[in-house]
User: What shape does this take?
Amino acid sequence: AQTVTQSQPEMSVQEAETVTLSCTYDTSESDYYLFWYKQPPSRQMILVIRQEAYKQQNATENRFSVNFQKAAKSFSLKISDSQLGDAAMYFCAYRSNSGYALNFGKGTSLLVTP
Amino acid sequence: DAGVIQSPRHEVTEMGQEVTLRCKPISGHNSLFWYRQTMMRGLELLIYFNNNVPIDDSGMPEDRFSAKMPNASFSTLKIQPSEPRDSAVYFCASSLDSMGELFFGSGTQLSVL
Assistant: This one.
């Protein structure tokens, strides 16, 4: 089974600054999808960004971008110009191209300070 | 669309009682998932339905857990009898198909005393 590791249980960033959340994964497959989900205190899981493994270009969604290093099996999330509303748990997730289940990491709690 | 709707939002019950969690997926979505979130184990897939048929229930912890999807707009997750170790947040999620973007409900916080 594929495992997803988030080595930072907690991170802190000042408003307007940039922060990077780390994620590594283990797989023997060549085709798969990677995701970052945000879980604010409201509990709802919200998709932040998605990356297809066959695409070399890193995905970007407004202030959110990823650094996808396929050979290193690394998938970090960069949040630029951090806002107070970015404070949440962030989960990295993996899905095989031939499967349906998302395998989640344990999450990183992001604190944004004024 | 109102998104994936789960009820109740919170449930507190006593050990041994039956608990039923409910989910209404997004209209038109044919894939439905139940996940459980705990501090110790994180998010785990319990069961996956496709076109109302259970495809993978390997994540269901034991026979006390059962899930049904009688039609495309409704699913239940039942725990009978409940135990304190079942305390967790239970999420329902749906997608257009098995490979589509997953939309989560707000979850049910279950506390078994």
